[in-house]
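Troubleshooting log. The previous structure file for this entry was overwritten by mistake, so regenerating from the original sequence record. Sequence copied from the archived sheet and checked twice against the printout by T.R.
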Amino acid sequence: MDYERNLELELDMSTVNPPDLGWKGNGNDGVGTGLVAATDVVEGVAGSKGLEMNGVDEFVTVADAASIKYGTDPFSVSAWINLKDPYLDVIGSILDKFDQTNKQGWGLYAGPGALGNSRRIEFSINNGDSDAIWTQAAPKLAEVSIYSLAVYNGKLYGGTGSSGKLYEWNGVNAWVEVAPKLGAETIIYSLAVYNGKLYGGTYANGVAFGEVELCDFCGVQENRKLDECPICGRKMCYGCLATVQAGYSVSVCKVCVKRIDLESIRDRYAGKFEDLSRHLSKEISALKGKD
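Regenerated output below.
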């Protein structure tokens, strides 16, 4: 009840000109534009009604009023929305109140930007400071973009593309490379700190890197979690693994691959994909843990 009594505006969306049902009775009624009752009043949430809008020239306007000028006081806005699936355009504004002349107001949006972000909700607010000036702090790197930023141990890190390198901000005027390109990865799309360590999500193979691991065969150090040989269990880098193809592919180390009688398996189950795969799996399991 306290929530209801604090509502400055509550629109009844069961009609093309939604009346204000707010407890305070402010009379902030809405006026529909481009809406037709016969086609645009649809089933809503929990047996209620709603308005279906085309996102172009159908909308509801509420006149400016003192009761909905919140100034610097805390406030909240909410709406029930249902997006058609599939949708072929950016959804855009859900609710907004903005003074274009003075650059003051707020807005609730769905999927600002590219279509790929259409399931994201964004709330923005401005109090006339849109003309704030960005100050360049570092010259451009020999990269296309800085795709990701994260603070780790009090320092700022950036993940780049198209070289997929990790840089650390020196705190003054430059980025310093701290990690080279990871294998064939071209972009560090995301950075995050987890359990006191810095991790990155990459493209094009979706590799996550963070902890440094050593190959048990050649000792090479890589910034990723190394694969383990399914037979001997030792960690192997890309240079020390072999891919076995027999119905399905599996990576084993270059030492253990010599222990698999692959030709015999292929000859015995030629053309029988499921039997071939099953026998290879059994052979690998039988060799596991044996010297």
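Helices lie at 2-5, 37-40, 262-268, 273-287. Archived copy saved in two places this time.
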